[in-house]
Amino acid sequence: MRGSTRLADGNRAPRRGPAHGGRRRHGRCFPGVHHGTGTRTALVLSGGGARGAYQAGVLAGLVDAGFVDRFDVLVGSSAGAINAAVLASRADDLVAGAARLEAVWRGICATDVYRTDFGSLGRTGVRWAWDLTLGGATRRVQAKSLLDTAPLRTFLRREIQFGRIDANLLAGRLDALAVVATDLHSANGVVFLQGAGGVPDWTRRRWRIERTNVRVEHLMASSAIPIFFPPVEIGGAWFGDGSVRNTAPLRPAINLGADRIVAIGVSGPPPPAPPAAEPRPAPTIAQIAGVLLDAVMLDALEGDVEHSERVNRSLLQCPTGHPTEPFRPVDVLWLRPSELVRQLAGELAHRIPPIVRYLMRGLGPDAAITELASYLLFDPVFCGRLVDLGRADVAAERERIARFFASGAPVRAARRSHG
Q1: Which of 154-158, 199-203, 225-229, 369-373 has the highest mean pLDDT?
Q2: What are the phi and psi torsion angles at 309 (to 5°)?
Q3: Pairing mode, strands 176-183 and 237-241
């Protein structure tokens, strides 16, 4: 069963304080580690490049509204891993952490993430041209990605105090930080796990857990968008974006003992379908790449939430009652953009650095590159608009969110009514 895990033992953890209390409600049910009558809250952040700004807006809205003052478990992949690490470094003050995360995204520029100078991109273009034309003859491949993300490494070192993550875990202000990546040689998923004492290990086919202190290289690996950003070497192995293998994004949080999960996606409602009779040209490389990135980066969380609903219905109607494998409820609150992110990216695509936009036009016309633009548009205007959208969506969903955090009634982790 996708997203389920076996109970390691029947021990109950001590009850947590009032800030993390609250009655259990029917939600996603799984066998797993039980944590007594307190509530362990996890935050799951999906990938999506520049779309990660939306998560900062949602978090700022949740914290400012007083819905949450602590997350016990933080799980992230790709841009979500970076956001999770920022929060982990400020777990002693989530209000300040959410404010800092919002400020980072409102001020981010493409030059903070990848090189945009003509010389760097020109050299990359030459390597690709060489590999595609003469690589078969020379048997030597030079190009590793379309963009050079050396600036991102510097940016992360400046913005994240990794020593504070260690201190917050040691002080009990945070239970675990999990960064998801993909081993590009074995095609297996990897969870880089930094946790306090007592945080459980687990096993899963085609996955492994590596306990480590999360640092810049782990975030670089998790956010290495396929083809666009270069893979990262850690301990002799090469890693790429965690979303590639992460088909069940909620599972690490559940395995780490979460009783309820706040999951923030970055995929908006589906675009309207064109009229059936309308002739459509063959898709360009840019459009195909956009579809592939959507499938890899965005669709897994939506599918896992939908799966959780089916699991809930089945298990609530047919409880196992098995004494050695008890099931427990895990509530899931899923939040995602209420507007089409690609449409916003299309409106602001002119803000992509000129040389990058020129290269992207080699993959298709402007109308076809909007999906790709939404991943690479690290721009204060675009990201600021996404932050604003995240805040607005929290305000619009205030009643449902309040029920999730405060009510004992069932709260369905459902899609929004508009799709």
Answers
A1: 154-158
A2: -65, -40
A3: antiparallel
Reported pTM: 0.81
Could you read off the pLDDT of 4-24 as tens digits, one per residue? Answer: 332 233 333 333 333 333 333
Report the distance separating Cα 174 and Cα 169, nearest Å: 5
Instruction: Tell me which amino acid residue 180 is.
Output: V
